[in-house]
């Protein structure tokens, strides 16, 4: 099963099921992750910085394309509520702007 590793959450490893978004996998693992619009792709608060493995993620959704075109989503970022992990593993980190105050982040 593909694996998501979140570097700045103490190398948290999350199994991502087929067709499951990264956000759903993170939530299923019992972790909190910022998502102001409720996972509908209407904001960018759930974004993740992809450090390694971008090629293993599914294609950009329409929402992600829209945010990329207006420069609200960088080339190395994806929305966890929209993207799936199709094969292989991916490593990412929580952006500084969307860290939750009650979580303990590393490095």
Automatic annotation (TrEMBL):
Its cofactor is [2Fe-2S] cluster. Residues 2-98 form the 2Fe-2S ferredoxin-type domain. InterPro entries: 2Fe-2S_ferredoxin-like_sf, 2Fe-2S_ferredoxin-type, Adrenodoxin-like, Beta-grasp_dom_sf. It comes from the Bacteria. Pfam families: Fer2. Keywords: 2Fe-2S, Iron, Iron-sulfur, Metal-binding. Gene3D superfamilies: 3.10.20.30. Belongs to the adrenodoxin/putidaredoxin family. This is (2Fe-2S)-binding protein. It comes from Pontibacter aydingkolensis.
């Amino acid at each position: 099963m593909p694996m998501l590793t979140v570097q700045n959450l103490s190398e948290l490893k999350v199994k991502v099921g087929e067709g499951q978004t990264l956000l759903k996998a993170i939530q299923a693992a019992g972790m909190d992750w910022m998502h102001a619009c409720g996972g509908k792709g209407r904001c960018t608060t759930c974004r993740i910085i992809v450090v390694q493995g971008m090629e293993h993620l599914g294609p950009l959704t329409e929402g992600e394309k829209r945010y990329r075109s207006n420069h609200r989503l960088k080339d190395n970022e994806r929305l966890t509520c929209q993207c799936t992990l199709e094969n292989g593993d991916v490593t990412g980190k929580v952006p500084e702007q969307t860290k939750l105050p009650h979580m303990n982040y590393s490095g």
